[in-house]
Amino acid sequence: MKVFLEALLILLFDSRNPVSIAVRCLYILGAWAVLKKSGNKPWYSLIPWVREYQLSRCAGREPEGRVFSLVSFLITILLIVGNIIPLVLKDTELLEVSGVILVCLVTLMLVHFIYNIKIFLGFIELYRARKAWLILCIFDELRFIPMMVWGLGKKRQPAWKLEDLKAAMKKLATNGSASVLSEGLTINLKERCAREFFKKKVLLKDIHMAIPSGHMVLLLGGSGAGKTTFVNAINGYEKADAQILLNGTDMYRNYRKMMYEVGFVPQSEMMRGKDKVLATLSDTAKYRLSKDIPREDRRERIQEVEDIFGLKPVESNLVNKLSGGQKKRLSISMEMLSSPSLFILDEPDSGLDGVMARELFEQLRKIADSGKIVIVITHTPDRVIDLFDDVIVLAKDSTRTGRLAFYGSIEEARKFFGREKMEEIVKTINRKEEGGDGLADEYVLKYAEVNVNYG
Questions:
Q1: Using CA atoms, how far apart are residues 232 and 176, in angstroms rounded to an integer?
Q2: Is the Cβ–Cβ distance between 250 and 297 less than 8 Å?
Q3: pLDDT of res. 170
Q4: How many domains is the chain built from?
Q5: 20 to 30 Å CA-CA from 276: which of 8, 25, 293, 413?
Q6: Cα(374)–Cα(388) distance, integer angstroms
Q7: Separation between Cα atoms, residue 320 and residue 274, nearest integer Å
Q8: Could you give the 3-state DSSP secondary structure of residue 394?
Q9: Strands 241-246, 216-221: parallel, antiparallel or unpaired by DSSP?
Q10: Kind and range of the H or E element at 87?
């Protein structure tokens, strides 16, 4: 094991021979030129780990760069430890420790390999290069070639520079806010952040809108655009640096009171399959309705909700015996018991065929027409798009932050994006590696320019 481990380390990371030193120097030279072209500090190329992180920023892959740099550092530590332990451990102990180091090293190298590909895909996009370049990028001994070509080639110019990204973000950082509605939902979200590798990660930023009561709104966005984070910020489940007002009342400051004004239906049904429909609604009513409400009034409210969603004929059935559409209607009915002013639904049509989905959305349309606000996330919006009033489009910009790319009527969205179908709009703003057109930044900036005051 000792001999195998030493051979592996020498094979992969021996930097003492002249060829290896020359290759590394050429790579650093290319990285110096690439950083300089992108408007970054070129001397970062001289500092291990920092160099890879700064290069990832130029490629629009900062999150991947943080992981890649950390993994590279851990690999170096393991290599140092692997060279030291033969000097301090006995043969019996060395065998066990060497095995652990080898497993950790192979795991880290796999992560290193994957994130290296992700970063260089960003460079391929940055320099509009063919994906065939990726063959050279994934091998440490050959990475100097694309770096030298992209960095020193006069015809190879980056599609964007760091100062361009900074200017764009500064342009978006407006102090505008949406006008407060006395009847409706007002959202003025500055930031929603999290911690990632001890660094602040901005998940959502600068989202302002006012949704009138009686509107049914479609929430669109590609994977990672922040749809779930957005709705969690609205309902107060995950508070953001924001002011969320529902019918003029601050959701965060009056959370205990306002939590009953918001109905949230997740994608997965939160119901016990062995309970009957009526028992499920009765148990929910105990928590969703005030304890001061008489039992008879509570029973009338349950019957009213059953009638609205056609559950009266199956109230004695077990939940796990219901059809997919009936389960969805039961989930919505549970939230409807308290008659909330705001309904948020995450893929309520998941698993339903076209006819069942249409019936469900028509029920949601009736809820909106009764003066409620209904916000729906769905991956198949075009089959029921005629039932919606407005659309919210969230997009992940080049810094991987969720931004508002559009809010307005369905027809306005079609004109704004130049696309007829909502699914085509999502494709337009998705990144190229996700099968999209990679135009998120363009439309985020365009919307910011025409809606500076968000009013």
A1: 22
A2: no
A3: 60
A4: 2
A5: 293
A6: 9
A7: 6
A8: strand
A9: unpaired
A10: helix 62-88
pLDDT level of residue 454 (50, 70, 90 thresholds): very low
Judgement on whether residues 200 and 131 belong to the same structural domain of the protein: no
76 domain residue, yes or no = yes
Helix (H, G, I), strand (E, B) or coil at 276: strand
pLDDT, one tens digit per residue, over 38-63 is 888 889 988 888 898 889 888 878 87
Residue type, 298: R
| Residue that finishes a domain, picked among 136, 158, 180 | 158
Residue for token pair 């089959």? 383
User: Tokens standing for 340?
Assistant: 């909330």
Task: Provide the H-helix boundaries in 270-389.
Answer: 277-288, 295-308, 324-336, 354-369
Residue 164 lies in a domain: no
Residue 276 and residue 312 in one domain: yes
- Which has the closest alpha carbon to 337: 271, 285, 292? 285
Mean pLDDT score of the chain, rounded to an integer? Answer: 81
C-alpha–C-alpha distance, residues 287 and 302, integer Å: 13
Pairwise CA distance, residues 51 & 42, whole Å: 9
One domain for residues 318 and 442: yes
Query: Which residue segment(s) compose the domain that 23 sits in?
Result: 2-158
Query: Torsion angle, CA of 442/430/109/116, rounded to 10 degrees?
Result: -30
Q: For residue 455, is it within any domain?
A: no
pLDDT at 199: 65
- Domain boundary among the residues 139, 158, 177 is at 158
Q: Looking at the structure, tell me whether residues 143 and 265 fall in a common domain.
A: no
